[in-house]
Amino acid sequence: MSFIEYLPAEGWRPHIAAYWVRKTEPETGSAGRRVYADGCADLICNAGTSTAYYHPMALQDVVIPLEPGVLYLGGTMTAYGVVRSDSGVLFTGIRFRPGGYYTVFAQTMGPAVDTVVEFPDEELRLAMQTEEGLAPRLDRWFGQRVGLPLRTRKYDFSLLCRQIYDSGGQVSVEALARDAHVSNRTLERIFKENVGIPPKEFLRIVRFQEVLKRLRQVGDATVSEESLLRIAFDLGYYDHAHLTNEFKKYAGILPSELSHFYKTGIAGGQYF
To answer: Is 189 left (phi over 0), alpha (psi -120 to 50) or beta?
Structure first.
């Protein structure tokens, strides 16, 4: 399964992280990919000829078919998911930064949290139907249909996100509300509009992403119990078990399993 990312035009980068293409190569046969929780949203078009299947682990026993020629919105995830695909699946996608989808389309994330729903925009679907020239074509679509500058709001969600990411997910909800000069209830409404989940859940996801980053930085070194304890302490987890349980919720595997994959490149039957 190959994966390519393209940067959007500079004016869209505060809201759109990347345009992307993922395809299942004919020689690989059936393939699977684990999707980690990251606070982002994606518009996804199956521009291929085969149906793929999405298993959101936050919704037990739910399997969502991603059919050829259909455009979907994948919302914020509160647990990991798995996408299974056969030869002939070609995904094109638009990855929005947290809050980016709401800023661009003025639509809340709520209905798409932990799931994938159809996105009924025929012009955009057609723009995403082919891999060649995807990035400039999408830049033109956004420029013609949405345009810059975007609407202004009473708050700047990107500033809230920056504060959260700078802290590694360790800033408190109370501090966020105080610095934004809003009540805790208003802060919750802002997060529900922008990412579909409460600020506490978003903070946990950002902290999990910080663990991921640190495991990648370790690279081919061995991640010991002692180093995991140090990561847990640095990032404000109660203990090693708390880190492990939360990591498994958002990634579907243990930190030691992911570290082994980074070190060896061997998946051991898992999807990374």
So the answer is: alpha
Superfamily of domain 2-145: Jelly Rolls (2.60.120.10)
What class is the 157-264 domain?
A: mainly alpha
Residues 6+ apart with CB under 8 A from 28: 1, 87
- For residues 168 and 135, give the distance between their C-alpha atoms in angstroms, rounded to a whole number: 31
- Amino acid identity, residue 65? P
Among 253, 254, 252, which Cα is nearest to 225's? 254
- Identify whether the C-beta of residue 1 lies closer than 8 Å to the C-beta of residue 35: no
Across the range 44-51, mean pLDDT stands at: 94
**What is the distance between the alpha carbons of residues 22 and 24, in angstroms, rounded to a whole number?**
7
Which two structure tokens, joined as six digits, stand for 18? Answer: 């990347």
Q: What is the pLDDT of residues 106-144, one digit of tens each?
A: 999 999 999 999 999 999 999 999 999 999 999 999 999
DSSP state of 145: H
Spell out the domain ranges in the chain: 2-145, 157-264
- The span from the CA of 238 to the CA of 136, in Å, is 47
